[in-house]
Write a structure and sequence with these properties.
By secondary structure, this protein is mainly α. The chain contains 17 helices and no strands. Keywords: Cell membrane, Membrane, Transmembrane, Transmembrane helix, Transport.
């Protein structure tokens, strides 16, 4: 990291560091046990794969829809109240998961987990834009947040296994504690961040939700970008559950070791290469970075389609290529939203980006159907073609219109006299 970026890091206000570190610890404790939740549901309630998948997908879809509204609400009511509400819901949800005994309690708790995440993550990303005026510094903060989220997601399961915590229901209490501490940290951070008062003044003249919807509906470029990124997430997700199903059905040798190696290669590649790739591609416009990432992603899908089932090293090579594309595309998508959003609608735009999760949520179902009716090579050949479709959508988006931001009507803040930053 060069001297300029180091100085930018030193200039981040306390609230930004709370978001960054909270993302790391929250996601790390979350992934200590969340990937093993399917095992708990199977062992405790003898649920089938379809039933477990339906529970997980339904909560993910609901969270994506809620995230859009909450992002817009944070533009009107301010970030502080929404962030405190979201972290409180997450704390309650994971505490309930730690003590749940019945299936209905598990379903309610898992739904609340998705709700809490949908409530606090869009305004957290938007708040970074509120507090950091410089575009380069904002991009660095968003890139660093994605890096820390990945680090938490990678280290969480490994720490859980090492400490003997994985698949232990009580471990959800650690996640509840992490969100409680994050909630308290936000209270402290807003009280000690001068820039928060600047953000509060901006929030005092926010747009009404229906007017925000009207403007977003006229932002044709952004709508096409949203569609393209939903498809991109759909493609990436095929390297997750669908790949596991494919390798399992095909009776790949050393399956458990192979899946563990795939997870490790993905995590290490993203963490090691994200910032070198940022330095290499940073001077390029965001759209060019996205197209480069899509080309690499397409190569990864083609490799998966052609790779022999029993070629262990080939699967690791294919996942390495897909992971390089992930290291380029995922953080760039956050930077893209930040650049496209006007200041007074930043929360609404980050909320709309919650729809990306629809691609991830629907991928296991679609991937499973293609595997049932076709085969693994057919699945990844379809994904290769979809990469081209996403590239065409991006090319189309550059020719589309954007709205006049001044047409968004203004009204007073959410609650008179409230502290809304």
């Amino acid at each position: 990291m060069n001297l300029l970026k180091w100085r930018q890091l030193q200039g981040f206000p306390p609230l930004v560091w709370i978001i960054l570190l909270g993302s790391f610890f929250g996601r790390g404790t979350y992934f200590m046990v969340w990937p093993f939740l399917a095992i708990l549901l199977y062992e405790r309630f003898d649920l089938g794969a379809a039933e477990i998948g339906l529970i997980l997908s339904a909560s993910a879809v609901g969270a994506a829809l809620l995230g859009f509204y909450v992002g817009a609400l944070s533009d009107r009511c301010g970030r502080r109240s929404i962030l405190l509400l979201g972290t409180a819901i997450s704390c309650l949800a994971f505490a309930l998961l730690a003590v749940a005994e019945s299936l209905s309690a598990f379903v309610v708790a898992m739904s609340l987990c998705s709700v809490g995440r949908a409530v606090w993550e869009p305004p957290a990303s938007a708040l970074i834009g509120d507090l950091i005026p410089g575009r380069q510094a904002r991009e660095l903060a968003l890139q660093l947040r994605y890096f820390l989220i990945n680090a938490g997601a990678a280290l969480g399961p490994m720490i859980g296994v090492w400490a003997g915590l994985s698949a232990q229901q009580e471990t959800f209490g650690l996640t509840a504690l992490s969100y409680l501490l994050l909630n308290l940290a936000f209270i402290w951070g807003f009280a000690h961040t001068v820039s928060g008062r600047i953000a509060r003044q901006r929030r005092n003249r926010s747009a009404r939700f229906r007017d925000t919807l009207r403007v977003l509906g006229r932002d044709h470029m952004f709508l096409v970008v949203i569609l393209a990124n939903v498809l991109a997430f759909f493609i990436f997700a095929q390297a997750d559950s669908s790949l596991v199903q494919y390798l399992t059905r095909a009776e790949a040798p050393d399956l458990v070791a192979l899946i563990s190696s795939i997870i490790l290669v993905n995590a290490v590649t993203v963490m090691v290469l994200q910032f070198p790739l940022l330095s290499l591609l940073g001077p390029l416009p965001v759209t060019q970075r996205v197209l480069i990432g899509l080309a690499i992603l397409a190569l990864g899908q083609l490799w998966c389609a052609l790779n022999p089932v029993d070629w262990y090293a080939g699967w690791l090579g294919a996942i390495f290529v897909v992971s390089v594309a992930e290291a380029i595309l995922f953080p760039t998508m956050s930077v893209q939203v930040d650049q496209m959003a006007p200041d007074h609608l930043r929360g609404s735009y980050f909320g709309a980006s919650s729809f990306y999760a629809l691609g991830w949520a629907l991928a296991p179902l679609a991937g499973g159907l293609i595997l049932e009716w076709g085969s693994g090579p057919v699945l990844y050949a379809v994904m290769f073609v979809l990469c081209g479709a996403v590239g065409l959508l991006y090319a189309l988006s550059t020719r589309l219109s954007r709205p006049d931001w001044s047409s968004v009507r203004q009204e007073p803040e959410c609650l008179p006299g409230a502290v809304t930053s």
